[in-house]
Amino acid sequence: MKTYDLIVIGSGSGGSITAAKCNKAGWDVAMVDYRPFGGTCALRGCDPKKVLVGAAELLDWNKRMQENGVQSEPSIVWKDLMKFKKKFTDHVPDKKVDALSKNGIDTYHEKASFISENEVQVGEHTIKGNRILIASGAKPTPLNIKGEDYLTYSDEFLELEELPEKIIFVGGGYISFEFAHIAARAGSEVHIIHRGETPLENFDADLVDLLMKKSKDIGIKVHLESSVASICKEKDGYIVTSKKGEETYELKGDLVVHGAGRIPSLDMDLENGNVEYDKRGVKVNNYLQSVSNPHVYAAGDVAATDGLPLTPVASMESHIVASNLLKGNHKEMDYPAMPSVVFTVPKIASVGLSEKEAKEMNPDIEVVYKEISNWFTYKRTNESHAAIKLLIDKEKDIIMGAHLISNEADDLINHFATAIQLELKTKELKQMIYAYPTTASDIGHML
Questions:
Q1: What is the model's pLDDT at position 71?
Q2: What is the DSSP letter of 190?
Q3: 164 prior amide bond cis, ω within 30
Q4: I need a labelling partner for 321 at 20 to 30 A (CA). Which of 101, 179, 226, 331 fits?
Q5: Cα 61 → chain centroid
Q6: Are 185 and 167 in contact (CB under 8 A)?
Q7: Strand pairing partners for 241?
Q8: Residue 322 — very low, low, confident or very high, per pLDDT cuts 50/70/90?
Q9: DSSP 3-state of 55
């Protein structure tokens, strides 16, 4: 049995930074991942998704400008788009493993299971770690419905060689909406079945309403307050049986995609390692160390913290873990403003407090809501759905929350994240000189 100073379970953002820093400090490090090395974001999440979103944005922009000097009518050739996408993903696993090996980090391509507090079984190998970092990310939430085996998952969707004519998404989260906006523009008939009254429940409801209108405009059919009871396979596709109140109805599709949320990926016999966890993930202290097993730390989507399940947050937590491993527990997590984006077309972006949270903290919060599609920034490209909602503490003159919908929302939200993090006064933001005409140059008029 080989003993390491550090065993990292997971090869994505939450584990890679810690592994690299400890390796550089002279530690003997091993990395374990039963999936291709590189993590969700690089291989089957953020990056490949953004490549496909780019094509959807081009089509949307072109359509908006059809009567304003643009005459071509492009279409998505799915096979060619997937070939382009693979240019960003196919090389990642080998490049990752080569880099780890070059630096002397051992790699294990098997599933990890705890057999004691500091021992892990990896395939035929039993390895011991003086410290173990769990950074294995998230997995789709089990739905416990009849025919669940027929579901296609997000990573499989991103590998489709052909796009089916009719797609049904189960769940109204960001995965469903992002893929739906891509598929609809590529020519598919798209349905989203969502259990709640409003989809994208972690985002501002007023802005989600605008996105729903845009989704309807491009042909996406959203079935609210509906739960999926079963999925049945037929020769030429699938039948999804859903319930809305007392009513039962069926939808037929060529593909049924899971978009009903994700949970920490912790199928590794944590009980054998005396690692306490709950539905949010591994229970950790302020140093990201397991509350029950001092050998173990956790970072990213598997850690039960206040951090959002986002790649930059996982990276930040990995930096914290590395510092605490190398210097002893001294650095606690202090989460900054965490901007989050739904990469639909248009995009929805959010940072800071929601309207409800802000009003609970301070009933006198000023709510600034403006539909801005008639502003020059958006009118010049015929954007039909653009709006902002800002939550301002009038007494302190600072922004507590910012919520945006537009094609430029993903970049613009970062300015508000900076303002919230640094507690910049709105007066100061208004006095800033921004390059003009740019999206940021509208900030003064938004406040």
A1: 86
A2: E
A3: no
A4: 101
A5: 24
A6: no
A7: 230, 250
A8: very high
A9: helix
- What per-residue string of b and e applies to 186-224 under the rule 16 or more CB within 10 Å gives b? bebbbbbbbbeeebbeebbbebbebbbebbeebebebbe
What's the average model confidence in pLDDT over 193-205?
95
26 contact partners, CB below 8 Å, separation of at least 6: none
* Beta carbons within 8 Å of 167's beta carbon, 6+ residues apart: 179, 180, 183, 188, 189, 190, 191, 253, 254, 255, 256, 257
CA–CA dist 446, 403 (Å, integer): 12
Retrieve residue 181's tokens: 């906006």
Q: Could you write out the DSSP letters of every residue in 337-374?
A: ---EEE-SSSEEEEEE--HHHHHHH-TT-EEEEEE-TT
Q: How far is CA 184 from CA 251, 252, 382, in A?
A: 17, 16, 20
The pLDDT of residue 318? 97
Contact 381, 397 (CB under 8 A): no
Between CA 193 and CA 168 the distance in angstroms is 7
Give the distance between the most distant pair of CA atoms in the chain.
Answer: 70
* Least trusted range by pLDDT, from 22-36, 42-56, 59-73, 132-146: 59-73
Neighbours of 56 (CB within 10 A): 23
Concatenated DSSP letters of 257-278: EE-S-EEE---S-GGGGT--EE
Among the listed residues 440, 379, 432, the one whose alpha carbon sits nearest the alpha carbon of residue 408 = 440
Segment 289-294 long-range contacts (CB within 8 Å, at least 24 positions apart): 289/324, 289/329, 293/117
Closest alpha carbon to 105 in 35, 34, 32, 1: 32
Residue pair 231/244 in contact by the 8 Å Cβ criterion? no
Q: Which amino acid is at 399?
A: I
| Secondary structure of residue 179 in the 3-state scheme | helix
Average pLDDT of the residues of the chain: 96
